[in-house]
Design a protein that fits this description.
48% helix; alpha+beta; 201 residues; Helicase, Ruva Protein, domain 3; DNA polymerase, domain 1; OB fold (Dihydrolipoamide Acetyltransferase, E2P); 3 domains; single chain
């Protein structure tokens, strides 16, 4: 089992990234909560990982904090929640916000996440309320301390691509990015602001 990778960040294009570990390039998928914390390409990075083995592929998922990986694994145990939806949930709100929604029974906030309908939101609340409470004292869930026009256009395209990969329809992703485009030129910030704006409505 691959539990952690430490190496050089080769590239990052949500939801995909690659880390070079002693000459071996590991391709990973990660939620936006992790992308917000990534350094620039060429710099050192450490990610906690989860390996999913399927008949047709071995997929490695990366997380900035052990708590995000724990929540990802917990979500996979919920009936009807796959890896794509789990990544979308972690991209749409942080672990603390998600746990708060579960404890408060706030289905309305959960259904604003891509791919999460009312039935799924209610199932998440029922199945995870006790489970997440039991994880509060688990050490593994605690955080670790520690341009020109073409460039702008590329960042916009990358942000739209990332949102569609998270489950939003292309027209909706385009609208979300356009609504916040004037606030930043950073791809990661565009995605973060677009998701925040969508969830606040």
């Amino acid at each position: 089992m691959i539990g952690r990778l430490q190496g050089t960040l080769v590239y990052k294009q949500p939801p995909n990234l690659m880390i070079n570990v002693q000459g071996v390039g590991y391709e990973l998928e990660a939620p936006m909560s992790t992308f917000y914390e990534l350094p620039e390409s060429g710099e050192q990075v450490t990610l906690y990982t989860h390996l999913a083995i399927r008949d047709d592929a071995h997929i490695l998922y990366g997380f900035h904090q052990p708590s995000d990986r724990v929540l990802f694994r917990t979500l996979l145990k919920v009936n009807g929640v796959g890896a794509k939806m789990a990544l979308a949930i972690l991209s749409g709100m942080d672990a603390a916000g998600f746990k708060s929604c579960i404890q408060l029974g706030d289905a309305e906030s959960l259904i604003r996440l891509p791919g999460v309908g009312r039935k799924t939101a209610e199932r998440l609340i029922v199945e995870l309320r006790d489970r997440l409470s039991n994880e509060e004292n688990n050490p593994a869930t605690r955080p670790v301390a520690g341009s020109d026009r073409d460039t702008v256009r590329n960042h916009v395209d990358e942000a739209i691509s990332a949102l569609t990969a998270l489950g939003y329809k292309a027209p909706e992703a385009l609208r979300m990015v356009k609504n916040v485009q004037e606030e930043t030129n950073s791809c990661e910030d565009l995605i973060r602001l677009a998701l925040k704006s969508s969830l606040s409505k």
